[in-house]
Amino acid sequence: MEFETVLVEVRDGVGIVTLNRPKAMNALNLQLTSELGQAIDALEADNNVRCILLTGGEQVFAAGADIKEMKEHNFASLYALNFPYVKRDCWRAIDEARKPVIAAVAGFALGGGCEMAMACDFIIAAETAKFGQPEIGIGTMPGAGGTQRLTKAVGKAKAMEMCLTGRMMDAEEAERSGLVSRIVPAEELLEAAFKTARKIASNSAPAVSMIKQAVNMAVDAHLADGLRHERHAFQSTFAFEDCAEGMNAFAEKRKPEFKHR
Ligand code: CO8
């Protein structure tokens, strides 16, 4: 499988997908979300693969949706495209994967990057990991599960504070709060995550798949309703001038001047 924005390798029953836009901090543009979706679908269909490992770079897992690409859109243009940032490709592929998907996170996992890690079945974090939903800073909100999955993972108080202020959580707080399964030294992240994935890949595939489904049932009841609500609300933020101002300000490296304070 050859893609530009994601690298894919299969080793010992594990499909390893690496986000690959290092110059843009692995920002999730439409090419990446599309290629990631194709990569996960292909690994899901590959009988040699029994567990999927999703990772980014040493400094950043992913810094969220590509603000510079997204800022070219308004509500009408996104509506015409059927809201491609949140509806298609990788989100559906990760959600529907029957094989376990592990996120190995070093550095920033922000906005859509944090949402992507949380969409996986569990997260192993390097001690350098930082999680956050900073969308409020650019006048919008989480749109791919942040308000729902973060709240389920860390509870209302922390999720509310993080989404309303953009405060990041470091690896230690993330582990204490239940967002990640464990922390490992940064230089050991990939090996530790790979070992875990290989262990899962060595187990009975149908039992693994059924356990994954059953554990997800424990947290996913009502998630679909919450995700639908969040998606509509996220889309609606593109109707506000503050959203365009926030994204333009980011690209122009200045502070946003929000009108609706
Ligand atoms: N989009 C586009 N470009 C980005 C992004 C981004 N999200 N993040 C970083 N970059 C670019 C920078 O513009 C910069 O480019 P250039 O070199 O051309 O100036 C380059 O990556 C390096 O970034 P910085 O110079 O800013 O690096 P720092 O180490 O100083 O800071 C940070 C790193 C803290 C990660 C900082 O870049 C940052 O705050 N980024 C934005 C984080 C953010 O707000 N994320 C939320 C985005 S909105 C979102 O995710 C909505 C989710 C909706 C659903 C998901 C859809 C896919």
From TrEMBL:
Superkingdom, natural source: Bacteria
Keyword Nucleotide-binding appears in the UniProt entry: no
Gene3D superfamilies linked to this entry: 2-enoyl-CoA Hydratase, Chain A, domain 1, Lyase 2-enoyl-coa Hydratase, Chain A, domain 2
Alphabetic keyword roster: Lyase
Alphabetical list of CDD domains matching this protein: crotonase-like (cd06558)
InterPro entries: ClpP/crotonase-like_dom_sf, Enoyl-CoA_hyd/isom_CS, Enoyl-CoA_hydra/iso, Enoyl-CoA_hydra_C
PANTHER family, per the entry: ENOYL-COA HYDRATASE, MITOCHONDRIAL (PTHR11941:SF54), ENOYL-COA HYDRATASE-RELATED (PTHR11941)
Membership in a protein family: Belongs to the enoyl-CoA hydratase/isomerase family.
Protein name, UniProt field: Enoyl-CoA hydratase
Native species: Marinobacterium sediminicola
Lineage of origin: Bacteria, Pseudomonadati, Pseudomonadota, Gammaproteobacteria, Oceanospirillales
